[in-house]
Amino acid sequence: MASAVGKFGTIAPIVGPISAAAIAYAGHRAMQVNWKAWLTNFLTGPGRTSRILLVIFIALNWKSMPLAWTVRVFHAFIYHVLRRPRQLPQRALFHYSVTSSRTSLLETDYNMHKSNSTYFADLDVSRSHLVTHILGPAVPLLSDNARTRLVLDRDGNLIKGAFGIGLGAVFCSFRREIAPLQGYEMWSRVLAWDRKWLYLVTHFVVKGKVRPTGWDGKRMGPTRSRVVKTTDGKEAEEEDWSKYIFATAISKYVFKLGRFTVHPAIAIQAAGLLPERPGEGWRGGESETGTPDEIGEEVDEEGEWDWRRVELERRKGMEFAAQFNALDGTNALFDGGEDGAVGRFPLG
């Protein structure tokens, strides 16, 4: 997604009116077409078989068509700018966003399942939905840092520059294949953050098999009870949801103002999703993710989302994110073929 979220927040006042004018003009032109005659000729005229087959092919492969990725990503931006609740509850910070998709025929490889390379385009769309939804209010505030003064350097000087969000790395673990035309869902949420990176986790899940216990904001469909019961009505242990997972990916984002790296906690706090934290807050201390003190007494994981519970959840995620982040060190393994190479090959 690179810096698309930040750029969209900057160009939205221009894109919005232009898009509205283009849609209005297209609607005006469409009203002048005799659609009944056009459709009759399309379905019954010469060459109808080829046209109908082409329409079916495009319908089955629309997400693999030219510019389809751009439409999917910008749809996520526009959708959440228009539909996001004014204020999300505190608990929403670590909640999943759910996006549905289906494997197109053009995404299918010679093994007759979804090609591994196509997961990354879906991740762009799923992350765009998540980040725009939970951090949407922070984008205009960070983009107008000259007024809001949210981002200052260590000496208290104002940071200038265009705001952007960059993708630093993606790791994907494949567990089961996804068949051609099979539906699936992408469940994305914030995993953790440190002083530089915001880590996100995305699970590719069998469509329709998993439902959340509730939605943040208005009802968006069926939910499940927190209590799982057996057929005889007795309470049972929570179901093993991992059996519905096709793949799991971890991504990391960096926030930038010009060339200056913005602490993720600033963006999260600007979106209204970080509770107040005593002492040096969320950006002080040796680790620069808050004070290094222990959380203290046992945290009630079913209780209020205070700073202790948020920090506990962040530390849980960092246990995985730290190992993922350590892979950056593999850059040092590249020696430029000091001992030779096997060859240079065409059609790469």
Automatic annotation (TrEMBL):
Stretch list, region Disordered: 277-302
InterPro entries (alphabetical): HotDog_dom_sf, THEM6_lcsJ_thioesterase
Coiled coil ranges: none
Species for this entry: Echria macrotheca
Residues passing through the membrane, by range: 6-26
UniProt keyword Cell membrane present: no
Pfam families reported for this sequence: 4HBT_2 (PF13279)
Keywords, ordered alphabetically: Membrane, Transmembrane, Transmembrane helix
Signal sequence, renumbered to the chain: none
Keyword Repressor found: no
UniProt-recorded name of the protein: Capsule polysaccharide biosynthesis protein
Skewed-composition ranges (Basic and acidic residues): 277-286
Family assignment from sequence similarity: Belongs to the lcsJ thioesterase family.
Phylogenetic classification of the source organism: Eukaryota, Fungi, Dikarya, Ascomycota, Pezizomycotina
